[in-house]
Predict the structure.
Amino acid sequence: MRLEKVEDRFRERVELRWRSYALLMGRMEARAVTPHSRTSRAAASKAEPEAPFQAWEESKPYVTSSLPALEAAKCASLQGEEAFTAYHQALFRGLFVESRDISDAEVLVAMAKEQGLDADRFRSDLEASRQRVAVIGEHLEMLSEYGEAASGVPLVIIGGRDPIVGAAPSDLYIRIIERALEEGITSPGG
């Protein structure tokens, strides 16, 4: 993923922290792919070659909620940082490249198994909703801090600056990080 490649470039000086932010907190049954979604994916793919966004396959069910995938990522983190990283990348790939319904629990468990996680433990954690409080807390924190600006994912905050919303070219992240480091800013909050 682009953000992790950016982090690798600044390995000793920058920490990438993933926080939960749900674009669709509730469940919206029979949700269809919107023209906005198609346009956004096409623009992101064109703007950044490292973002292999694909048009959603019309024959596949579309995501009905953000909450299950966010909880699943937290469940993966219970199995370690490497498990989280692999799973998190799989979620992005599943949604933006493979047209997988990452709001479906069975899809999420299958992805955990594909990434080499302990699928039984993962399923148990997911079904028990053990990470829901953390996900909702992080979501509310982002809304409280960034309000209307929190309108897309990823929502990237570098050194307390205004958020970068949605897929952005790696060059943009690099320029802003370099500027923050030159100014002596070493934490997300400034």
Summary: Helices lie at 2-9, 35-47, 67-77, 81-96, 105-114, 119-127, 132-146, 170-182. The chain is about 50% helix and 0% strand.
